[in-house]
Every structure is written in structure tokens, then in C-alpha cells.
Amino acid sequence: MRTPLLFTRRFGAMFLCQALSAFNDNFYKNALTILVIYELSGSLGIDAGLLISAAAAMFILPFFLCSAFAGQLADRYPKYQLVRLLKATEMGMFVFAAIALYTGSAWFMLSMLFLLGLQAAFFGPAKYAILPELLREDELLAGNGMVEAGTFLSILLGTLLGGLLILGDHGLHIVAWLMLLMGVLGMFAAYRVPVTTQDNKAVALDYNLLRSTWQMVLHARINQPIFHAILGISWFWALGATYLTQIPLFSKEIVGGNEEVVTFFTGLFSVGIAIGSLACHRLLHGKVSFRFAPYALAVMAFGGADVYWIAQSLPNHAVGEFIGLAAFLDSPVHLHLAMALLLISIAGGIFIVPLYTSLQVFSVPEFRARTIASNNVMNALFIALASLVATILYGYGFKVDDVLMTASLLNIPLMIMFWRDIHPKE
Predict the structure, then answer these.
(1) Is the whole-model pTM more than 0.85?
(2) Which fold has domain 5-189+207-422?
(3) Residues with Cβ within 8 Å of residue 121, at least 6 apart in sequence
(4) pLDDT at position 114, please?
(5) Phi and psi (nearest 5°) for 257?
């Protein structure tokens, strides 16, 4: 009997390595988000919407600045070595993040969020580019589906625990120690990743970050399927980042929910993406194709509009009074809202997995990590623009439900692009 892919060392160790990274990053980020919304924004005298948008931008900025250089490193050196080195570096950063939590310094915590983003920017190209070296081509769609599902289930666990623990008794200390434990386990998994031999010492390292970034993006544009995949992935992360950063504020200001409702919404979003990701291999029968992309985008746009109209029907809640999860689930309107968010996220999972797999399949092996780095640069740019647009909209008096509706409407241009890709004119 053949061993399931997830339990093989050639895939399982890398899967666990990236899943634990996703857990810890989101464990820390969501704990910090909850602190910002319910405690720090008041003590600092800064609007919560502006502060969480700024925090999101701090995490994503290193992806824009450093992804190109990270891609060069991952194409030049064996990727398993980079995975191990970067996980050891991440462990050191978790130590300082734990100290930041112990001190309770908001600016120290935000600074560590930036450094964790820096580590993640270097980890991304190696993480995705190593998969074609560990898996057969006919396993890549299933492998990427499991990676995406594992990533978002890790986001779910990290979000749930970070949100539930941070405001409890000794919450800062518990979050700090659990983060350190997960870091140790992640480093152990990294040293179980099999040795890979693909490298290219001829790749020149360009230390001019802006020039190398621009050249990498230009190279990605040469191949239209790859470039459209990059645009689609970048939009997915911009939309996902918008939802994940604004849902806490949406839960508090529109729904009137406490941190339990915030955590439930974010967890529901992650579960939906995992379901969609795992469904991709079966829906596409293992073949890499964009054929479901326009339909998934249409569902995401429709679901976003549904969330907006539900929000308009919700009653006003008393200032300072928040409902818990049990009271939230007791309302049919609230359940409708939950189902709309689940629908958006399932469509997102179906949308994203074939696009990631196409980067690995259609790119030149010697340039694969740099292609993925180009994708990461574009991801960062789109996410930063999404944060900037959200900040501007707040400045013009938009509410959080208006921001989410605006994001939903922006699915339409991408839907048209992918429709033309799968239905080209004769």
C-alpha cells in the first residue's frame, strides 16, 4: 500500500515546517490585532482602523523590499539549506517577540511584526520552489492544495488561540511561551526536510533591491499564463488581507461581537479556504487549469455583496456592550452572515491553488524561485495598496462594511481577465 503523500518524509517535513510558520506568524499577529482593537488603540490615542492597517503594512513591506533578493538566493543555493537557516533565524525572532509581549511595549511588538515579515519574505521563495524538487509533477496540484489547506488551518489555529488567550489571565505570558514552543517544533521539522541538490552558482546576487525587484517583475511579464497567475494570486492575497485585517473591526463595530466572534469569523474564513484548496485536486482531476478562476471570482464578488447587505440590516448595538459567540450563533441573520463568509473563502481556495501550481509547472526550473519571488513582490505590492486604499477610505469617512464592499467589487476586473484567458477570441 502506498504511503499517503502527507506522511512521506519528502513532503511531510516541509508541510509541517511551513504550517508551523503560518501558525506562529498568525498567532502573534492576531494576538497583537486583538490587543490593538480592545486595549492599545485607546491607550495610544490612535484610531483602531488606522492602527491595524498600519500594522498590516509593516508586516508586508519586507516582501516588497526583499523578495527579489530572496529569490536569487533560493535559485543560487540548495533550498533545503535555506529552509534550515531561515527557520533557525525565525526561532531567534520569536525569542524577541516573546520579550516584546512580556514588556507590553506596543512599538516593540510592532517592530517584531516587521522583522517576522522580513523572515517570511526570505522563506517564501524557498518554500514554494522546493516542492517540485520533492514531488512528482502529477503530485504538485495535490501537494499545493495540502500546503494551502495546511497554511489556512494553521492560520485558524493561530488565530483562535492568539485571540482567545491574549486577553485572558496571564495572556501575554501564555502567548509568548506557546509561540516559543511552536518555533522549536518548526526548527526540528526544518532539519527533517530531505537534502535537495538543485542549485545554480551562476546566479548573480544583485544587492540593489529596487533594481533586482524591477527586473524580476519584468521577467515574469514575458510569460502571459505566469503573469496572469501572479496577478490572480496577488489579488487573492490583497482581498484576503483586507478581510483578515478588517474582520476584527467589522465584528466589533457592525456586529457588536467580542473577541470570541472575531476569532470565529477569522477561523471560518481559514476553514473555507482549506476546504476549497483540498477540493481543487478532485475538481481539476490533477490537471493544472484556470478554468474555474472566473467562476470563483464571481462567487467571491457575490458573497462580498451579500455580507454588505446583511450588515445594513443588523441593528445598532449599545456602545461598549459586546455579544459572545453563543449569542451570535442564536441569530438567523448572523448565521447567514457566517455562511456568506464561508462561501467567499471556499471560492478563494478553489481560485488560488491552480494559480500557485502553475508557477511551479510553467516556470523554467533554473528561474523557478525567482518567478515565485516575482509573485511575492506583486503580492506585497497589492497588499500594501489594499492597506493604503483602506486607510484612504477610512479618511473619507467610510465604515468598515463600505471598505469590504469596495474590495468585493474589485473582483470583477480579474474575473473578466480570466474569462478571456479560458475563452480566447477566435
Answers:
(1) no
(2) Growth Hormone; Chain: A; (1.20.1250)
(3) 62, 63, 65, 66, 67, 70, 376, 380
(4) 86
(5) -100, 155
